């Protein structure tokens, strides 16, 4: 059986490790080109790396109709998340269609304060896109947070909005990545387990002390 001294050493070590992880700024990435390719249905979940923090993607053909998501993996800039209702057959986001990203998981610690970046793929000359911030599921109306014609990485301030709607305003394009720079590092599941063990150790020590007293 582990002694109280060993428990103390382990618990303090775990807490110190987690504190070190959280003291360092970290970047987490959602790469929408990674995962099972092809038709994904109307909704899919993408986990961040690292951290495994989920965002939920839904496909919409209009303000009232859903359409299926399509993970395109054709190489080059033809990688990312599109939709199956693209009349060109390229499985990209076009016209009145949009992909809505539910970012509810980004409002909890340690992601209560972060900077987001957004990027597209398959944007060629004359094509354009926009990102809308909204709190209404399934509706592509709200505050325009970003718009552009390129595939560069753009800073995105989603303050006050749960959903991000990604749509094409001309031509078609793919949703490529979303990433967040956090003021505190995001602990891996193993680090969280270590903290849990540390807290259990503290609890057992306190109970033993009370029993002795």
Please list the strands of the largest sheet in the order they lie side by side: 3-4-8-13-10-11
Q: Helix amount, in percent?
A: 10-25%
CATH topology name of the largest domain, in short, is Jelly Rolls
Low-confidence parts lasting 5 or more residues at pLDDT below 50? 6-24, 190-200
CATH class of the largest domain: Mainly Beta
How many domains? The number is: 2
Would you tell me the overall average pLDDT?
Answer: 82
What is the terminal separation in angstroms? 21 Å
Overview of the molecule:
This protein has 213 residues and is an alpha+beta fold. It has 2 domains: 4-22 and 189-212, no CATH class; 25-182, Jelly Rolls (Sandwich), CATH 2.60.120. The chain is built from 2 helices and 14 strands. The chain has helices at 4-23, 189-212; strands spanning 26-31, 38-41, 43-47, 54-60, 69-73, 79-83, 93-94, 98-102, 115-121, 128-134, 143-148, 154-156, 163-170, 172-182. A 6-stranded antiparallel β-sheet has the order 3-4-8-13-10-11, with no helix packed on it. Strands 1, 7, 9, 12 and 14 form a 5-stranded antiparallel β-sheet that branches. It has a 3-stranded antiparallel β-sheet with strand order 2-5-6, with no helix packed on it. It is globular. The protein starts with a helix and ends with a helix.
